[in-house]
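Researcher: Please translate sequence to structure tokens.
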Amino acid sequence: MTPINDRILDAVDQIFDDEVRFLEKLVGFRSLRNEEAEAQDFIAEALRQRGFTVERLRTDGSKIGHHPAFSPATVDYAESWNVVGRKAATGTGGRSLAFNSHVDIVPAGSGHRWTSPPFQPARRGDWLYGRGAGDMKAGLAASIFALDAIAAAGLCLRGEVQVQSVVEEEITGNGAATLFSRCFTADAVVSPEPTDEQLVRANAGVIKFRLETKGRPAHPRDPESGQSAIDLMIRLIGHLRTLERKWIGERQDKRLFRDLPNPVALTIGTIEGGDWIASIPSDCTAEGRIGFYPGEDPKARAAEFEAFLDRVQAEDPAFAGERLAAVSWVGVMHAGYELAEGSAAESILRSAHAVTHDGADLPSYVMACYLDAAVFAVHGNIPSLVYGPIAENIHGIDERVSLSSLKRVTRTLALFAADWCGTEER
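Model: Translation complete:
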């Protein structure tokens, strides 16, 4: 290990308690969709204090349907703000780097089922608990404090560096798309999502949908005169499992996906129907997502989904050939990507990981979900490395992140940034 590496790693250790306190403050913000402003104000001020030039950019809904990186959305983006901190290169000859993280989180669900309140971060042993602690506020903190450690070690980076804190990752990806469309790019992008200290080799494409079924409301004294929209939705979801099985079967021709039991993962995340306990329900809605494989056009997959829905209504007697079901697109409609092996960025990350893991090789795996890294990889052909800490119960109850893992990841990211961008003495 080089003397510079020693200085950087010592600096990470010296400021790690500050990093954990920073993360605790960040987890305390309820940065749900369209409620991220307070957390983003916190990030913006933290970056300003560190000498970054900070820009706030509203998520740009005007590009939906016009720019391929953007996905359908159903909300007003008036208060949907992304934050970017930029620090210019010192000297010449360095490569640029963007750390991309999302500050938005999913709802905590049944808060009474958590061991401690989801927005009151709690340390228990090696774990920090709280909604968003793992996905992915820990990664955002790690990227900021990795750069802090380089500065504390008395070093400057010879390449421009960005810290991107975006919104909308959990639903549309339009925060990252906004930054990409505004040319906030770099020679490499690192996204410290919770990956259990592994590198993501590929991710799935994803489309997110809303289904609606229309029944005939009726009184329970004459149930045969009505038709339940909820029953129709249950039938429709059952049919969609057939489509899911078909798409899963296609994995045999996909080298990186063939060993996954379900790389498609049809998920029905919400369902709502009926308006009175003693009535045959008139309407039902359900929202969900389904995945597909890198290299495929998300619009083509959406068209296949729509055609399948048409066939169901034509062939299932419950729908009587009528248009009793409809689909609309309400979130991510984006392709997946494969990270080509052998890039200089991966090689440097591999070396940094070996230093912080006693010489161990960097493992990799496939993540069958949407990642903002896909925006930069698919549309910019930019090496996009997804690598972050160990976390458990993400999107679940008692979400938590390992603090010892967070330290290792911060050390790895600091070494990576120093090597990738190049350093010189302050």
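Researcher: Any highlights?
Model: The chain is about 35% helix and 25% strand.
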